[in-house]
Amino acid sequence: MNTPHPSSPRRVPRAAAAAGALCLALSACGSGGGDTLDLGAEDVRAALEEGGEITVWAWEPTLTRVAEEFEDAHPGVTVNVENVGTGDDQYTALQNALSAGSGLPDVAHIEYFALGQFTIAGNLVDLAPLGAAELEGTYTPGPWGAVQGGEGAIHGLPMDSGPIALFYNQDVFDEHGVDVPATWDEYVEAARALQEADPDVHIAADNGDAGATTTGIWQAGGRPYRVEGEEVAIDFSDEGTARYVDTWQQMIDEDLLLQVTAWSDEWYQALGDGSVATLVTGAWMGLNLESGVPDGAGSWRVAPPPAWEEGDTSSAESGGSALAVPVGAPNPALAYAFIEYANAGDGVGARIDQGAFPATVADLESAEFLAAESAYFGGQRVNEVYAASAAEVREGWSYLPYQAHANSLFNDTVGQAYVSDTTLAEGLAAWQEASARYGTEQGFTVTTGD
Q1: What is the pLDDT of residues 379-417, one digit of tens each?
Q2: What angle do CA 71, 77, 80 make, to 5 degrees?
Q3: What does residue 76 show for φ and ψ, rounded to 5 degrees?
Q4: 375 C-beta neighbours (distance < 10 Å), count
Q5: Do residues 260 and 204 lie in contact, with contact meaning Cβ atoms separated by under 8 Å?
Q6: Residue 214 to residue 209: CA distance in whole angstroms
Q7: DSSP labels for 327-349?
């Protein structure tokens, strides 16, 4: 398997093909509050009783079983799950359907960072009146915050989450007599020690990735993006960002990182042969290691993400996605019924049984879920680590309303720090400028930290 978890933002190339196709100009697309239909919870119940057919566009494989069980629970309902492409490919197809006003699915799978591309254009139904407003407290803070909009709007229901953890090859650390790091300072020291013990061993692989960078900044306490309606602020000079930059710049300067592209065959090979000792990424990575690095069974373990200060348990999210209803969907009431079943009802259990990591608090606190032992990770109760991380995600993080396009600018700005004399700080300044320029062109009022 050479593809990451279905909800991982690393799954596709950095160039976001859909971004250019999305209508972002505010004068043309509206304020982005989402469309509030003249429908309520009673209409959802009526739709289930009446039955009908809905189409779900999603690349998440666990939804096939969820759809089957939903049909069993509601005779007369047919759910067609269609994979029209992964990530950007689906977003382009969705935007084309929105523009044409035909061929729309009833339900669309959208990653958290990409929701803004559609909500700012008013292309997603506000699910709050349909029953989503009653789900406050159902989800962990990171995913729940990601689907909320202004004035109480809810643009989708969280399907999963990606609280970060430290995945590490215990055999590599034991072989070289290096302690597993608990802080980022220790992480840098461990990187040096591993390199000194064996020049072919790197603590991590990184050749520049927008999602990994923003996740690192998030965990460090940085808040480079502030969004209030049409007003956007971008500032990569705050204290948390500087903390991340200082640490990662050391790793780049000292050649402590293996520069290979994530999800490539070379990357998987490095994870399998021990030349890459750790990954700091979302909880969904566990399944990818099991399927993509089968020879690593028994060698890999999971720990909390390295702390920026000793004793600090702050975490962040990496990846994750929601199910939403596009404006103009043929059967929005029945669509919401399916979304609630899949992401807040019995469908959550069906997905967990297939290895998915949930965003629902009740499941994350379930004794059965927490006690599950992973044979791949040497019998470790990895869900305990993931769940603890999910509970410690720093609040207040925002993505840009055009984050997918901003990410497409990363390689030519921040990415240059990995291949030239450009520093990360200089690259982030260039990314800030390019992202601000694009936002202004699309009709946003953008301010930057200089």
Answers
A1: 999 999 999 999 999 988 999 999 989 999 999 999 999
A2: 75
A3: 100, -10
A4: 10
A5: no
A6: 9
A7: TT-S-HHHHHHHHHHHHHSHHHH
219: left (phi over 0), alpha (psi -120 to 50) or beta: alpha
Strand segments (E) across 201-356: 204-205, 225-228, 231-234, 257-258, 278-282, 300-303, 321-324
Average pLDDT, whole number, for the chain?
Answer: 90
Q: Counting beta carbons within 10 angstroms of the beta carbon of residue 297, is it exposed (0 to 12), middle (13 to 18) or buried (19 or more)?
A: middle
Residue type, 419: V
Is the separation of the CB atoms in 29 and 120 below 8 Å? yes
Question: Which residues lie below 8 Å from residue 284, measured CB to CB, with a gap of 6+?
Answer: 4, 5, 7, 8, 160, 162, 319, 356, 357
The H or E element containing residue 289 is helix 285-292
Structure tokens at 429: 């300044």
Do 164-317+396-448 and 9-161+319-373 fall under one CATH topology? yes
DSSP 228: E
User: For residue range 298-331, what is the model confidence (pLDDT) as tens digits?
Assistant: 999 999 999 999 999 999 999 899 999 999 999 9
Q: What tens digit of pLDDT does each residue of 9-44 get?
A: 333 332 333 334 344 444 334 434 456 678 899 999
What is the CATH architecture of 9-161+319-373? 3-Layer(aba) Sandwich (3.40)
Q: Which class in CATH covers the domain with range 164-317+396-448? A: alpha beta
What whole-number distance in Å separates Cα of residue 210 and Cα of residue 204? 16
Query: What is the C-alpha to C-alpha distance for residues 266 and 244, in angstroms, rounded to an integer?
Result: 26
CA 263-304-410 angle, to 5 degrees, is 40
Distance (Å, rounded) from C-alpha 398 to C-alpha 400? 7
Structure tokens at 10: 């690393």
**Nearest-angstrom CA–CA distance, 271 and 300:** 10
One-letter identity of residue 244 = Y
- Reference 142, options 316, 348, 402, 401; nearest CA is 316
Give me the half-sphere count of Cα atoms (radius 13 Å) on the Cβ side of residue 402. Answer: 32
Domain chopping of the chain, boundaries: 9-161+319-373, 164-317+396-448
Residue 263 has pLDDT above 70, yes or no: yes
- What is the rounded radius of gyration, in angstroms, for the C-alpha atoms of the chain? 22
Average pLDDT of the residues in 245-272 = 96
Go through the chain and tell me how many residues it has. Answer: 450
| Residue written as token pair 């009673």 | 42
